[in-house]
Specification:
single chain; Jelly Rolls; 4-stranded antiparallel beta sheet
Length: 117
């Protein structure tokens, strides 16, 4: 199984406040390890941001996964950056990372991950 390091960027997100924007969906045939996630406030005032992991996978003899908040409504001052990921997160096929902000197009996002295919 080859491992490939990858990066996803969004200059601004989400397109509409209150409607989380999909940053990444794990593709068929892949498993990923999310290594880093940063949110930068590109607005002139403080905003709040949320990041969710939507997962419907089920591990053997476990309850089915649901949506989990990595952060929820966290304040990010103007011109500041937040790195809400401590440690690494394994993601399976169909798992989705979404970002929301109190104002549209005010958060810049970078996400680094290792893809295992």
């Amino acid at each position: 199984m080859p491992n490939t390091f990858k990066l996803i960027t969004r200059d601004v997100a989400p397109a509409s406040a209150g409607t989380p924007e999909t940053i990444y969906t794990v593709q068929t045939g892949s498993t990923i390890v999310m290594l880093g996630l940063t949110l930068s406030n590109v607005h002139t005032a403080q905003v709040t941001a949320s990041v969710t992991l939507e997962s419907t996978t089920t591990q053997t003899n476990q309850t089915q996964n649901t949506t989990a908040h990595l952060i929820k409504d966290v304040a990010i001052p103007a011109g500041s950056m937040l790195s809400p990921l401590e440690g690494k997160i394994n993601m399976n096929v169909g798992d989705i990372i979404k970002v929301d902000c109190s104002l549209a197009d005010k958060i810049s996002v970078t996400m680094s991950y290792m893809e295992i295919t």
